[in-house]
Amino acid sequence: MSRNFYRQIHQTQYAKILSDVTDSDDSLYRTEQWGTARINAANINRIWNMNQYSSSVYSSSYNSDYMTFRRKTFQLDETFRNYLMQGASANPVFQRLMGEKYIVSNRVVKGYQLYKNYGQTKVYKNEAVAPVIYGTNRLLSQSDYEKLPYPYNQIAFLSAAVVDETHSVAINTDNPSGTTDNNITDNTPNADNTILPANSGNTTDAAPTNVLTVRDIVSSAPLASLSVPDDFTVQTTKAQTLTIPYEANTVGNSAQGTRVLFLRFEIQNNLPTHDVTVYLDGVRNKLTSVSHDYYNENTTFTYAVALGDTQTQSVLTFEKGNYTILNMEASIGYLPDKTASQALYQSVFRPDTSCSESADSASSGHTISGTIAMKTDGYLVTSIPYDKGFQILIDGENVTCQKVNTAFLGCRLSAGTHKITILYHAPGLTIGKTVSLIGLLLILLHCGLLFFFHRKNPQFPGIPKPHKHIISSSQTES
Question: How far is CA 22 from the centre of its chain?
Answer without folding.
Answer: 18
